Amino acid sequence: MWLRFSDGFTDFVVLSSGVVEIALGLSMLFLFKYKAVVGALLALFYVLIFPGNLNQYFYHIDSFGLNTDTARLIRLFFQPVLIVLALWSTGGWEVWKRCWRQLKK
Questions:
Q1: Total-model pTM
Q2: Using N-to-C axis directions, what is the helix angle for 35-58 and 7-30, rounded to 10°?
């Protein structure tokens, strides 16, 4: 509802975010040499999709088995957990800190 230009565009955003999520998951499996960078990108992805999850909760939008407000609310509380796990389990914290220091210069 917040970013609704047309039904086709909304479908495109949902499907493309799914493709990005799958690509990041495969990157976690196969690009283990770059796991810290991939973990930082995965955490950033989770941050970026959070507004969409809020939108689904506030406007009662069913999606992928999330057909109750309770299920959608529970997902909102686990989103920060996913962010922290992506950073902690991959060493992505260091990548974020390094980027933050570069931005402050």
A1: 0.84
A2: 150
